[in-house]
Structures
1.
Amino acid sequence: MNVDYFIEMFLGGLTRGSIYAMIALGYTMVYGIIELINFAHGEIYMIGAFTGLIVVGLLTLAGWNTVAILVIASFAAVIWAASYGWTMEKIAYKPLRKAPRLSALISAIGMSLFLQNYVLLAQTSDFLPFPNLIPDFEFLKPVEHIVRASELVIYITTAIVMVSLTLLIKFTRMGKAMRATSQDREMAMLVGVDVDKVISTTFVIGSATAALGGILIASHIGQINFYIGFIAGIKAFVAAVLGGIGSMPGAVLGSLVLGWTESFFTGYISSDYEDVFAFLFLVLILIFRPSGLLGRKETDKV
């Protein structure tokens, strides 16, 4: 029984960490390119979930089966959220590219508040039910009390996204342009890299992964509201900093560590203070390793 409970806590932490990773990857990609903390990123996650809910409702009324609804709703949410990410970069961040970093940070906070209240006015402040679109798998019947089908889909999807992003950055032309822009934006422009296109693409990719995470976790939990993006966004930001902001492997590792920390603390100590313990853990990590678990210490050039 104790072993089963431990495994349940471990898998629960893996589920949390996987969703944090889907969002944290967007944080760390944007920071790696333009050194900006996009605090509106969590709201993109929330918009993806609401978009999915709207599409799910329409397709359910049309009599579609659940698997088709999940695929089409996920695709619609990804496209719609990516368009929001692209528009947000053009409106809120591009005009401030040469301004002090504080200006862009304030703009990011403003976009976060705007998107929250926009969805609040367009939808409702109440929690809305989100149907479980992931069918049960027969081979999980013996262990369904430990791991659910929705959790397995989250694990697999997160792994596919991580591998795809790694391959994109390492082996594609756009990935090379991203790395060049991250290392030296001015030099990248001098050798012909379209930096504006690279930055916009980074926002689009990060928004798409966040929206996909929003659909999966909404289907898993079964409810959404306008505030879920703020909570998830803060947790994902903590995970990105924990692993080393700007490092994609660090974002994944930080997300998993944070997910397991919350899960085990909730399961074995108390669920009332899981957020307190998570942030305390972050403070301790940053005291002893300010660059994060996998972050590299930057040296000042003289």
2.
Amino acid sequence: MMHLIKTGSLVLIVLISCQLLFAQNAHLSRLEVQGNQFINQQGEKVVLRGLNTSDPDHLAAQRHWNLDYFREMKSWGANVVRFPIHPTRWERRGPEEYLELLDQGIAWATELGLYVILDWHSIGNLRTQLYQSPIYETTPKQTFEFWRTIAKRYGDHPTVAFYELFNEPTTYNNQLGTCSWAQWKELMEEIIIIIRANGGKGIPLVAGFNWAYDLTPVREDPIRAEGIAYVSHPYPQKRPKPWAEKWTEDWGFIKDKYPLILTEIGFAGEEERGAHVPVISDESYGDAITDYCDSRDISYVVWVFDARWAPALFSDWEYTLTRHGKYFKQHLQSYR
């Protein structure tokens, strides 16, 4: 795979070469937005159901970023995979080397017919530049530059179907400062403009506040951009049971007008390693969230295909399933 060369016009030549190579090798149909649905180039409705990887940098360090890992996800019935890219890991490895990891993952996903979501995996307040923990540290400049780089490198690649602009916006009850929806919306619209101006043809994904749970501001003030979709992360403890009516009130109403994808769902039993607020629940949550999504053609991606990150879908690299893993492997395979 070609590398970026930091010498003027050569950068553009290499980026164009990468895009041409990807376009020649890709065989997935590009996804687009039509009304409140994702459609392919044949005009067919597409509902995405898949799995979150852990950070590619983390997986590479553990020697699990490989084709077998992707084959395992495919065997579960996934048709989409989400790559969470932590800003500090991007910085530490360096963009050139990190892009090599993404090139590999996108190539494996293409080979197996899996769409890819690239996720800028920060948690906090981009406006004040205060974050939940050091691993999520970024700046507006770094965020804008990341998306400019992604748009140039993968803009013509249909496998890279989605750009998740910022993982989980939160003010942490104002511990991270304040940010109004109008201020957040302005930042997201700026990123979308940068992506489009640099050739990014994928679908931007915009999350709401409360750790990407709450989309209620969109009712009165939607993002001013065409061809986008919205994101929620409705973990079980975000709302008490019964869930469905509250989900509709908080984020499900979005599907009346726009495409919606839940880029993180999942649960952990109270007794399981890594159980923490807001993910503690049981299989009743699995039934509720999948029934809700299936009845409304809402796409979703389960967190997380890793043995250590939580809630983990398996407990070791022999893929020994957790409760969470048993539930979602069976459910994903049922769509076949």
